[in-house]
Automatic annotation (TrEMBL):
Residues 24-52 are annotated as: Disordered. One of its GO terms (biological process) is purine nucleobase metabolic process. The keyword Nuclease does not apply. InterPro entries: OHCU_decarboxylase, OHCU_decarboxylase_sf. This is OHCU decarboxylase. It comes from Acinetobacter baumannii. Keywords: Purine metabolism. The keyword Thylakoid does not apply. It comes from the Bacteria. Residues 2-78 form the Oxo-4-hydroxy-4-carboxy-5-ureidoimidazoline decarboxylase domain.
Amino acid sequence: LQAARKAMANWGEDELNAALSAHPRIGEKPTGGQAHAALSRQEQSAVDSENERLAQALREGNARYEARFGRVFLIRAK
């Protein structure tokens, strides 16, 4: 964690936006075979993609957050 903080200490707005935009929105299916995509698939596996009501609520919530803050909503939960 300390190494990550040190690495991003000099990031500007463009670098932060690039890092955040590479992450899928909650409820979206991550694509690609890279390690970060595999981690995202694992994180997203608890979302019930068959529940259309939940999927719609996630899409709407994601859109509201992005409209307000200008970037994708991320949360870490275990």
